[in-house]
Design a protein that fits this description.
The chain is α/β, with parallel strands linked by helices. The chain has 6 helices and 6 strands. Helix content is about 40%, strand content about 20%. The protein starts with 5 loop residues before the first strand and ends with a helix.
Length: about 180
């Protein structure tokens, strides 16, 4: 296999669950939960979309991701600079790009996110795209909550979502 027909993957043990990091070329294409219930769907979309197979190994990008995740979980990083590669439909990508605009330590509802995308009636489609995000934490889908301000589904499970939000809120109070 050449560099461009493989997705290099490695595992990362976060304080709230095990993640799979994946790089394709010089970009991070995956930071997803090992126990993700849609693991097979996401893996198929990644491999089909990039015409590449998984290969265990590290890269400069995944090493950079590990460093930045370590800093994030230590409360020392509020933004990420790892280059990202989105693999999905144009609508999914539009949602994921909008997720990048949600400030650290804050939340928005699915309805608010739909309105920001200029499509207020697309709440369910936005929620589905949010749930299909394969680059958790870097693309902060954990910052999206229900309109009643309650936590709703998350690929890493609600305890992981709660952990991430509490980590950010406590770090913001220290800044």
């Amino acid at each position: 296999m050449t560099v461009m027909d493989r997705i290099l993957i490695q595992h990362y043990q976060s304080p709230c669950g095990e993640l799979i990091l994946g790089s394709f070329g010089d970009k991070l294409c995956m930071c997803d939960w090992v126990d993700e219930k849609r693991r097979g769907i996401i893996d198929k979309r990644m491999q089909d979309g990039l015409h590449a197979g998984y290969e265990t190994g590290s890269s400069e990008v995944t090493a950079q991701a590990v460093t930045q995740l370590d800093e994030y979980f230590a409360g020392k990083r509020t933004t990420f600079s790892v280059p990202l590669l989105f693999v999905g439909t144009e609508f999914q990508k539009s949602v994921w790009y909008e997720l990048l605009n949600i400030p650290y330590g804050t939340t928005v509802s699915y309805g608010e996110l739909s309105r920001k995308l200029g499509n207020p009636k697309a709440v369910r489609a936005v929620a589905a795209s949010n749930g299909a995000n394969p680059i958790s934490i870097f693309v902060p889908c954990h910052r999206v909550i229900g309109s009643n301000r309650k936590l709703t589904g998350y690929g890493g499970g609600l305890p992981a979502k709660q952990f991430l939000l509490e980590l950010e809120i406590s770090a913001v109070s220290l800044l």
